[in-house]
Amino acid sequence: MGVIPRQIEPVLMGALRRFPAVVITGPRRAGKTTLLRSVAPKARYVLLEDPDVQDRVRSDPRAFLESLRPPVIFDEVQHTPELLNYIRTVIDTHPRRMGQWLFTGSQEAPLMQGITESMAGRAAVLQLLPFSSAETAKAGLLTGGFPEVVLHPRGRTLWYASYLQTYLERDVRAIANVRDLAVFRRFLSLVASRHGQALNRVDLAAPLGISVPTISEWLRILEITGQIILVPPYFENFGKRLVKSPKLYWGDAGLACHLLGIETQAELERSPFLGPIFEGFLAGEILKSQVNRGQRKELYWFRDQQGLEVDFLVPRGQARFWAVEAKASKTVQSSMAGPLVRLSQAAGARAARRVVVHRTTRMQVETKAIAPGVEAWTVEQFVAVINGKKA
């Protein structure tokens, strides 16, 4: 099977024409290296995760750079952040040479600190997430979007187990001094069991017997390595008292299923986590549609202290937003529109569109109104629209 095109490619190609350097961040194994090597096939490739390469960089960084002829792809640059200062000097010497230095990094926050300090104004920073369902129909609730699982779904269980082990041994230890990786592994499963819930750090700390500050630090690790999504509450109260906690999702639906012990479609259909997994999948699709167009991530949820809750609010410009309810059901009922109707009464014209998104049946389902001002869309229809196609 050939390389599946990534939606971010036009944005990346534009960045290569306008910036001397381009940085691609994102979760480990999301396809960053494959993307860069496909758009820059003649570029020299350097894996900075290689201990021998790291020794060469640290012993004589200038000589190391002089041995390379741009364009160069530096893979996993977070392992040698000191290299950025020397590359900045080279860029400043030849400021008109665009698209010469290409970087990937799995740890977003530490990498961003180095880029901010060393490459400000010289590097375009993009984020690549695993496949969206707009890029390939094989990305789904059970499979997730990681390229290797999408291309080889029968090996998903072994792949996810290996991925978690690699993640624990490399990324986690590189960021923080986690003394007991076995407890951290239990923490990952516990986070998966809170998939789709408002974040409660005390609730996570108690079963593990660790402190709330430790939970906060571990959540920070998951977030900066692109493993979880924290959806903040909407900031405008519409005259109501709001819940202030973010909502917690595992970033990849397939990895969430693995951590929850869901191995087959039949198990998923019976699982009490089907609804939250579908909801998290939809959150991921919204964020992927934004970052693949080079936009900042903007996604919120709404809940007031009277119990009104709406899954997602997606800003659409001019202080307006789309209100979205995610329903794993394949049968659409008018009662599903209730929260959207109640929110629109408070939000007025700012709720520009109100949509219930549901799973697809085998029969072709058309977009339809299920309540005044509320539409029901299949997940395929919704993904098409948020990626720029007309409804």
Structural key phrases:
alpha/beta; six-stranded mixed beta sheet; five-stranded parallel beta sheet; 16 helices; 18% strand
N/C terminus separation: 31 Å
Number of helical elements: 16
Q: Which percent band covers the strand fraction?
A: 15-25%
Taking pLDDT < 50 over at least 5 consecutive residues as the criterion, the unreliable ranges are none
Identify the strand order in the major beta sheet.
9-10-11-12-14-13
Rg over CA atoms, rounded to whole Å, is: 22 Å
Assign an overall shape.
globular
Sheet having the most strands: 6 strands, mixed
Mean pLDDT: 90
User: How many strand elements?
Assistant: 14
CATH class descriptor of the domain at 9-127: Alpha Beta
If classified by CATH, what would the architecture of the domain at 9-127 be?
A: 3-Layer(aba) Sandwich
- Class of secondary structure makeup: alpha/beta
Strand and helix order: HEHEHHEHEHEHHHEHHEEHHHEEEHEEEH
CATH homolog superfamily of the domain at 9-127: P-loop containing nucleotide triphosphate hydrolases
User: Which percent range fits the helix content?
Assistant: 40-55%
CATH fold-level label of the domain at 9-127: Rossmann fold
